[in-house]
Structure formats: C-alpha cells, structure tokens
Request: fold
Amino acid sequence: MLNISILSIIIIIISLGASSLGLRASRHLNSNNLQRLTAIASGLLLGSAILVVLPEGFHMVAGNGHDDPFAYSPLILGLTILGGFIFMLILEGLGLGHAIHEEHHDHALGHGHGHIHHPKQSLVVTLGLSVHAIGDGLAIGAAAASGETTVSILVAFGVLVHRVPAALSLGIFSSHESNNRKSLLTGFFVFALASPIAAVISYLILNGVKESVIGLVMLFSAGTFIYVTTVDTLPAIHNPETGPRSARNVVVSAVIFSAFLLVLQSADVLEHSHGHSDETHILHDDHDDHDDHDDHDDE
Reply:
C-alpha cells in the first residue's frame, strides 16, 4: 500500500505542475515541441505496454496452471486486449476519449480551428482526459496488486511520462477556453486525482484475488495503452511535414526503453516472484513422494 500511495502523490504533483505550466506558458509553447514530447512519451508508453504490461499479464494468467480456465485460452487473452482497445475507441467516438487533447497542439500558435471541432466547455476536455486517467490508474493498481515492485514502477513510469504532454495540453486548452480561475483549478484537480483514486481503488479490489484475474486486468489496460499511443502519434505521422520526425521520436524512445529493460533483465531485476511459492511447493511435494517411495523400496 505504501508504494501505491507514493506513486499517487507523484502523479498528482506532476499532473498539477504540468497543467499549471501549460496554462501559464500557453503563448510561448511551440506546437512542434509539444508534438515532439508527445511522440517521445508515446514511444515510452508503447514500450511499457508491449514489453511490460502484456508479458506480465500473460505470465500471471498462464502461471495458474491447468486448473485455471484462462491459462490455455489464447483467444480469451486476445479478446481482453482487444476489449481495452475497443473501449477507448468507443469513448473516443462519444467525445470522451484521450485524443481530445491532441487537437489542441496548435492552440499555442492560434491555428487549426478550421479543421477540428472543439468542445465548447473545458469541462468536456477535462472529463475526456480524466476518463483515460482512470484507465491509467487501473493499470497501476493492477501492477501493484501483482506484488511485483519493479513492474509497478515501470508501468507507473510509462504513465507518468505520457501524462506530461496530456497535462500541458489541458493547461493550454484551458487558457483559451475559460477565464474562471476556480473552474480551471477544479479541472486540473479532477484530472490529477483521477488516476490515483482509480489506482488505490483497483489495488484494494484486486489485492488478494487470483493472479489470473489481475493478469486479465493488465491485458485490458495494455489494450488501452496501445490505442492511446496510436491515436497520439498518427495525426503528426500522417502530416508530411512532421511525419518523419514524429516517427523517429517514437522509435528512438521505444528503443531506449527496450535497452533499459534489457539492462534490468541482465541484472536480474525483472525476476518474477509471484507464482514461485506454489511451484516450489509442488516440487517439494514431488520430492517428498519420491523419498517416501525410495524408503518403501528399501523396506
């Protein structure tokens, strides 16, 4: 519980800080810099989803052996990941998705309004970002409930890095859409608290349940992460002017994150601890049975 509390405090501080920075520096922030930051963060989040959350989810589900109905059902596992992706897609269609903040990259330069429909109230933008923030919290809470400290930190790292451009964009948009300071602060706090509250609640619910259930939750979260990274980067990549640079930033950050994980693995930092006790117990029982059999033969 201590780890989840510390991570929650860090998330709140970073979210409020980045949102306030976006609000105060909205006229000075360059859209190219914001796109670059988003691409780098997307590469890190993509690496976290594919190299940490997905493998850990598979490991937790499959580690329960033949007695678990999900352990040998690849289709169920795939559907869970697809469910997370489609969940975000539906939210996007309803106007409550994560990519709402991407349309405001050009706000700092005061253009782009002719091509994109903007919500009339900043509350809609805050709600959209907060809904995705709840998904982030779900992933962090599930990782913490798995008992793997390293995995929890890596998942939280991916979420935190990706939160910076989202919070900056929220601050930039809010500076153009509302002059009510109380309303702005309320929106910032709602966004900042969404992930920590979801993380704590999901941790309390998932802590102590079967590992396969936690694994499925992590796979669902991985699906939402993959959707977010796709939506974040596609607008810039499809733009002939920014496409090569954005694609390069995503790839470079993903490669760096991958190299970092390889270093951790070589140092045995990524060793899994859950599920070992049951396996050890089974091996110990088999060893005892073998010894009993040998004693019986000696008699």
The chain has a mean pLDDT of 76. The first helix runs from residue 2 to 24.
